[in-house]
Amino acid sequence: MKLPLKRFRHAIGGVVIALVQFFFVTAPLFLIHFITDTLFFITYPIFVRIPSLRKQLMGNIRTAFGDEMSNDEVNSIAKNCIKGLFRMSGDIFHYGWPKNHGKLKELVTISGREHIEEALKEGKGIIGLGSHMVDFILLTLRLAQSDLPFIVPTKAPRNELLRNKYIEWWAVGNVKYIDVDNREKARKEILDSLNDNMIVYLIADERKKRDGIPVPFFGKPALTAKGPALLSLTTGAPIVPIYINHSNGYTIEILPKIEFKPSGDDKKDIFDLTVKINKSIEDYIRKYPDQWIWLTPRWKM
User: What's the number of CA atoms in the CB half-sphere (13 Å) around residue 34?
Assistant: First the structure.
């Protein structure tokens, strides 16, 4: 009995997702934003009254900024962060569909391409450094529509239905990706991509419970992935920060590569380069504090 019931749930789920997808793909953007904004205004007062979520959200902002900000400023950052997440959910459905790719190119400008072009001349590929700004998926979709040799390691959902939709969505969005579920295979594909002089985009601001090293982030120790630094040191691929913000229209900002001269002490070099990586991400968040996703346990040791 379990198998037919599972198939029934998948069928119903598939229909619901298809209907939502159809609406967000075909509806005008002003209507999509009206709906996502309305949902935000209805649910946010409930959201911030859930103790665990409020503690995570407000606590992270306070951990980062301490007494630099008033309570009103903290509340404003939290509110705009969640509102941005609601809007992103509609935007990625809308702009991810092929017929809207032209509008996506018009919407999202790319600044600093010269830094990519200069780094690619080294012939070692590029490690694109990313951060969980609320529009990070739009960044992925927009770069996939560009002529830049862009590929992103990612992890698909475990749920079969969601996983299939996830793979389908990346396919229609022209996103080249590496499935990191198989770590050894993913490592080989990442190295192959760098050897092919591609941009491997790594989002490096999550808490890394497994194999993470404590590195300052906003002045406090945070378990941080050493992978980007290790990959750069072993392959010679430069690390180029690539972020997105929506403060004056959507802009992908490509910054100059992170300069680093190895000392020859591997452990020290990994730590010191990871410090620079965290500092780059921190500096960008400080510019747009209400556009970073503050909901993860970033400083949990």
Answer: 5
DSSP code for 132: -
CA 153-156-159 angle, to 5 degrees, is 170
Q: What are the CA-CA distances from residue 232 to residues 114, 191, 277, 282, 290 (Å)?
A: 20, 11, 11, 20, 30
**Burial group, residue 3, by CB count within 10 angstroms (0-12, 13-18, 19+):** exposed
Which helix (H) or strand (E) segment holds residue 245: the answer is strand 239-245
Q: What is the pLDDT of residues 230-263, one digit of tens each?
A: 999 999 999 999 999 999 999 999 999 999 999 9
Q: Exposure of 232 by Cβ count < 10 A (0-12 exposed, 13-18 middle, 19+ buried)?
A: buried
- Count of domains forming the chain: 1
Provide the 8-state DSSP code for 214: E
| Verdict on whether the full-model pTM lies above 0.85 | yes
**Residue 199 domain-assigned?**
yes
pLDDT number for residue 166: 76
Q: Is residue 271 part of a domain?
A: yes
Name the residue among 97, 96, 91 with its Cα closest to residue 246: 91
Residue 127 belongs to some domain of the structure: yes
Place of tokens 């037919």: 4
- Could you give the CA distance from residue 81 to residue 88 in angstroms, rounded to a whole number? 11
Tokens of 135: 């529009």
Exposure string of 235-270, with b = 16+ CB inside 10 Å and e = fewer, is bebbbbbbbbbbeeebbbbbbebbebeeeeeeeebb
| Length of the chain (residues) | 301
Residue 23 lies in a domain: yes
